[in-house]
Design goal:
mainly beta
């Protein structure tokens, strides 16, 4: 009996072949994305422990992207295989590493009005709340319907609706898929004028909470929390200003009231054609370690589906599937960028501070300093050509006693991270 994965792969290949044969090349695009990456982790996401060993591996993402466009509708399909080299036997007949990253259709309802339905990426503004998770091997996409209205070239409005279930069911709406939401309603608007831009966003997200009434009988609740706010940007030839403020209310999974906030400001400055600097300050509200389990109010901001790897350090100590419902973060960073022909080195330093109180584990009455540590990130990008890029990086964390309490591990150990990545993005049919 053929495996589900093998059948899926053959179905995709047949789909591509039939579409190529049935439509003209002017209406069809076919591209690829192959990205192998070596990583060395020694104190990655948390401080290195004496009892552990450094990790190293090679992961690879392979995508085939198919696009079809007609005057009335557009279709996008992205078939994806993600794996770590060696995660299956050399003689395996099948595996579970393949899936559809995207599969959507966009219908033109009226002039400048569209509806996009299916599995799709959501990327808004600076990726702080909604990103495609490009750094992670699997990426991120949502099953939803998105209404898109563009009254003119300077104004965009999106309305989104998502409702998730485990499977086809007959007598319940209980949802038990881990690390996913049950329902979401989304509003986003962006307006440009001259060198200015303003975005407004509102997201109402519901998480399923299950309660066992009796053996085999579950009662489900949907607890919603709201995130809303705006972002302003200004950019001219030499300097830019980007600032955002977001608030959160509603209920968390433990039924506590949420009262959290976020703010950021960064000022990119172009010194000349080659050099630029970006000073940035970012604030995530947090909850005291002493009070996390006692307070009826959760003050820890949740950045939803944002791309923290690019923003809060490449060692991913914060908000990369971690640091939620924690002491928050104040991140003060400075990036220095240089671009010369195909070569682009980038240096970034981060100063990390806890937002809320951190208590000593041995004596809760003692409050520790708020500084968590300093991270240095070095990254080098070489563009072989328009479709091939080589990127390597090295990062090191210099942590404090406070970081030990928040993240565990030993600050006196060497905590570093390195990677080497190749990105191939061929365009088979254009």
């Amino acid at each position: 009996m053929k495996s589900t994965s093998t059948t899926l792969k053959k179905t995709v290949l047949l789909l591509f072949a039939s579409l190529i044969c049935s439509v003209s090349f002017a209406q069809l695009t076919l591209s690829g994305d192959l990205r192998p990456r070596f990583e060395y982790r020694h104190g990655y996401k948390a401080l290195y422990k004496d009892s552990t060993e450094a990790a190293s591996f090679i992961s690879q993402r392979t995508r085939i992207n198919l696009g079809y466009k007609d005057k009335n509708y557009t279709v996008g399909i992205s078939f994806q295989d993600v794996r770590v080299w060696g995660d299956n036997s050399l003689a395996n007949a099948s595996d579970n590493n393949s899936s559809f990253h995207e599969a959507w259709a966009e219908l033109r309802i009226a002039n400048r009005l569209f509806v996009k339905i299916g599995r799709q990426e959501l990327v808004y503004d600076d990726n702080r709340l909604f990103s495609n998770g490009e750094w992670s091997i699997q990426g991120r996409s949502h099953d939803m319907a998105l209404l898109k209205w563009n009254p003119d070239t300077t104004l965009k409005i999106n309305l989104g609706l998502a409702f998730n279930q485990n499977k086809e069911q007959t007598d319940t709406r209980a949802y038990t898929v881990a690390n996913n939401y049950k329902a979401m309603q989304l509003f986003w608007m962006h307006k440009d004028w001259n060198e200015n831009g303003v975005s407004l966003i509102f997201a109402n997200i519901g998480n399923e909470q299950l309660q066992t009434i009796s053996p085999g009988i579950l009662k489900h609740h949907i607890r919603y929390f709201q995130t809303f706010g705006g972002k302003y940007s200004y950019k001219d030839k030499h300097i830019g200003i980007d600032g955002a403020v977001y608030l959160q209310t509603g209920k968390d999974p433990t039924n506590r009231t949420i009262n959290a906030n976020y703010a950021c400001l960064d000022i990119p400055v172009s010194l000349n054609k080659q050099w630029s600097i970006i000073p940035k300050a970012e604030h995530f509200s947090g909850t005291s370690t002493k009070d996390i389990s006692l307070l009826k109010t959760n003050q820890s901001f949740n950045p939803l589906f944002g791309g923290a790897h690019r923003i809060n350090g490449t060692m991913d100590y914060f908000y990369c599937s971690n640091h939620l419902d924690n002491v928050g973060l104040n991140d003060y960073s400075l990036s220095i960028n240089y671009v010369k022909n195909r070569f682009s080195p980038i240096f970034t330093t981060h100063l990390f501070y806890a937002d809320a109180r951190v208590s000593n584990l041995a004596d809760e009455k003692e409050t520790l300093g708020k500084k968590l540590g300093t991270e240095l990130d070095f990254q080098f990008v070489y563009r072989v050509n328009a479709n091939v890029t080589c990127t390597c990086g090295y990062s090191q964390m210099f942590a404090t006693n406070t970081m030990e309490v928040v993240k565990g591990g030993d600050k006196n150990n060497t905590n570093n991270y390195a990677f080497l990545m190749f990105s191939f993005k061929p365009e088979f049919i254009k």
